[in-house]
């Protein structure tokens, strides 16, 4: 059995589809309120902050995928992520299950230096610090031989369905609704974005590749990086809308953060929007040369097709 912890998010749901299509129909979906993605899925409700419920969620699994997320709330991240990771590692050790962890880049330096699997952890705030700490906890468990695991790291998302990201919320959703997009700080620096179905498909492939274990992998992205100006121009062309946008300055974001706690808690990420973001996935592409990475045009076209019946195209 292959189990997805945090199966209700976009990454978990797409992972379930790719596992069923390419590898197995014996899939367990775990979240507080899980829903089937495939007809053959098994559902289990669990709170991963509870060690006993986590043990039950992992029991009987050969491979466990940790795709759980927490709201953009700094206090909850600091308090809950270490507990969640400890519970999952302990459950995998107890039940001799392999672990595939979906990680992010919050702990990386927010500079224009290319990011590779060997990049140092130099977080800019509390959320980045705790993500670095839980990743190190998993690396320590791997080094000690307690658990076989893979770390799958991804940059910022964009994608279909319930994809939650700054790019979806401030650019894609606005353009599709016929509104002006919002860009943080600069529109002329390069962004590396990963298409969520690619992230899930790559994670399914890694989890079912025995020699991939014991390593960190950057998940594959389109290397034809665009600035937000170029991304918005392309999106507007694909969606058939006007590509208007506003660049929000730091003081505007600070003022907005006074009344919007989510935006305030995301403030530590702002430096990444002032410099080129070069996330390098060459290691994955060399190991899996046949993996087809979705281009920005292809990804945006798929999003546009999905949203078309209820969109405001042409407004």
Keywords, separated by commas or semicolons:
7-stranded parallel β-sheet, 315 residues, 13 strands, UDP-galactose 4-epimerase, domain 1, Rossmann fold, alpha/beta
What this model shows, in words?
The chain has 315 residues and is an alpha/beta fold. The protein folds into two domains: 2-156 and 195-218, NAD(P)-binding Rossmann-like Domain (Rossmann fold), CATH 3.40.50.720; 160-192 and 224-279 and 287-310, Alpha-Beta Complex (UDP-galactose 4-epimerase, domain 1), CATH 3.90.25. It has eleven helices and 13 strands. It has helices spanning 10-22, 51-58, 74-95, 126-143, 166-176, 196-207, 228-239, 250-259, 261-265, 282-287, 296-307, and strands at 2-5, 27-31, 42-45, 63-66, 98-103, 149-153, 156-158, 181-184, 190-191, 193-195, 215-218, 226-227, 245-248. The strands form four sheets. The protein has a seven-stranded parallel β-sheet, with helices on both faces. The chain has a two-stranded parallel sheet with strand order 7-10. Strands 8-13 form a two-stranded parallel sheet. α1 (10-22) crosses α6. The longest helix is centred in the N-terminal third of the chain and has 22 residues, at 74-95. The protein is globular, with a radius of gyration of 19 Å. The model is unreliable at 310-315 (pLDDT under 50).
